Amino acid sequence: MPIQITRVNMGVVFTPRDEEVYKNSSGVLYPRVMELHHAGELNGTLLATFDHSTVKEPPVVPIMQSTDGGVTWEPYGKIEDTQNGYGIRFQPVMFELPQQCGDLPAGTIVFAGNSVPLDFTSTELSFYISRDHAKTWEFRSSIVKGGPPVEQNFDALGPVWEPHIYLDKYGRIAVAFTDERPHTDPRFNQTLAVIASDDGGKTWSEPKYTVKIPDRTLRPGMPIVTRMGNGKYIMAYEIVGYPECDIYYKLSDDGWDWGDDALQGTRVETKDGLFLGSMPYVIWVPQGGENGTVIVTAKREGEHIGMRDPGYYHVNYNYGVGPWERVPMLITYNTDTLQAGWSMGMTTMQNGEYLIQLAPTPINRRLMQITYGIGKIETVE
Hints:
About 0% of the residues lie in helices and about 45% in strands. It has no helices and 27 strands. The model has no long low-confidence stretch (mean pLDDT about 95).
């Protein structure tokens, strides 16, 4: 059965001050949002984070809090790069542990972000933990290190990008990420990998490649993983090199083995040829019939004859198998502004009855703010 998502509220999480950001910067990008479930009296609290590019060095990662279901937001905390001193410059993500992982109890909040020096000579996905629900943080480990954050610099070690945290079937903390280091091999450009820890993030496995297409014109990136109601996992990602940075996905039984890494996966596409382009996010919700619903959002929507402005989620009612349908999106914006919609985050809240989506939306042609949309998810009989 189909779902509908009815918008009930829309507003702003954070607006940067123009004079505090770099002249060539959009200010804020890459928002992520989560609801606390293992925090005692804080359960139901929403926490949000995002890239925040300012003239102050080193940069810190802001954390915003909402205690009224996402309607109003206030500063809550920050994450500083206490290990390298560079600043967590790009792609922050938080995750609340739903169970014990190593010596970390359920309710611990873990964090990954890209520690990058001001001279842009290296990248490092750093791992931090909070034992007090994101108020204070401590460095735990380095997940993986890479070269300068420069795309397609084939003569140098490639960068690592875009972490996303989840638990695999075995209860390990897993981090899916974009890995450009293999581009020193002329068969590859950019690849996707996953890395895992069985001791609460103290140490990490060797990366396991999930999408490693032997075609140097293709750059898979921005992986997002979620566990569905059947216990299986879906990973959505973009493939740059196709005209619209088309969104593809793979399925996994355990969140670790994603099949033949040389295969590009399956495109998110409706029966009439509409597809999504650039910077996906994916979640699963129980509404929509016995299999629930997989919801994918992306920066824009396309078709065989060109692109459309955003305005629709693509949804699937069979755990990612078969065709996709369209449901109106909570947040829309003009895609003429490059940074608008740059990697939107979303989650369910209030016992899964509502969806909240965060997106960078334009204040002007350069500067972004973080906007939210809240919608009630209902099964249509």
